[in-house]
Amino acid sequence: MHSCCSRGEVLIVLSVENVCKSYDCGEQPVLDQASLELKAGVLAALVGPSGSGKSTLLNIMGLLDKADSGRILFDGCPVSALNATDAARLRNELIGFVFQSFHLLSRLTAWENVALPLFHRGVGRLECRARAMTMLEQVGLADRSRHRPEQMSGGQRQRVAIARALVGEPRLILADEPTGNLDSATGLQVMGLLRQLNRDLGVTILMVTHDRDMARLCDRVIEIRDGRVLPQEEQR
Question: Which of the ends of the chain has fewer CB neighbours closer than 10 A, N or C?
Answer without folding.
Answer: C
